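Subject: for your reference before the review

Hello V.,

The reviewers asked for a structural picture of the protein, and I figured it would be easier to keep everything in one thread rather than splitting it across files. Below is the amino acid sequence we used in the manuscript, unchanged from the supplementary table.
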Amino acid sequence: MKKISPLSRLYMGIIFFFLYAPIIIMMAFSFNASSSTYQMDGFSGYWWVRMFHDNAAMDALKNTVILAIVTTVCSVLLGLLAAIGLFQTKNKLYKRSMMTVTNIPLMNPEIVTGISMMLLFVFAGTLVHKSEVLGFTTLLIAHVTFCLPYVILNVIPKLRQLDMNIYEAALDLGCKPFKAFMKVVLPEIMSGIITGAVMSFTLSLDDFIISYFTNGPSFQTLPIYIFSLTKKRVKPDMFALSTLMFGVILVLLVLMNIAQSRADKREEKRL
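And here is what came back from the structure prediction:
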């Protein structure tokens, strides 16, 4: 194994410092004893307590978690079906075209996606003579749209690694197709499903640009609520909110890496 040179370590240290120093400073100021955003006057949990007693912030947090969970469930179900359909498709041109279409939401700028979906929803609302069309439903459709490709692109590689002879053997032994899928295929691709689900949850949890254009006055997510606070004087309770979101996403990413590592070890043992 090649050793890492001290210069490379220094370079990586500088990169990580610039990446995470602002987040660490934000976390520290969320425990500031005063309302100052540029001078530490001691450590206190006052702003965290105030944040949890802020009804508007807690409602926005609840809305964000509900939206992320529903988005994850819908994305996993639709993405799993789409991945299986693309995997079993024999027409290479159709499969290649569908994979290209799947990659478009990943490459398309979020502001373009947000504006185009807002125009689509407003146009659909005029067709059904509904003035306030933007809300939870439009947010859900928008979030599923940009989360779905991540599920598909995480499940398809696992399907390609699967030995389909095992599935066919289960069918030959009298197992019904659905039961064979649940007993043979699903456990083998579960790591890809978990990875896609965690990515969908985290992306939905902290999305702002697309949510900003597709949400309505009746449903506000936490990133939009935090953005509304910046129009006033910034206080450390906003830092506490941001720290809370960062901590949740960090825990989910760590769990995803642990699940992926265990899946890789099981695959190595099986081979």
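For the response letter, the relevant points are probably these. Residues 191 and 264 are 9 Å apart (CA to CA). The mean pLDDT is 84.

Happy to draft the paragraph if you're swamped.

O.
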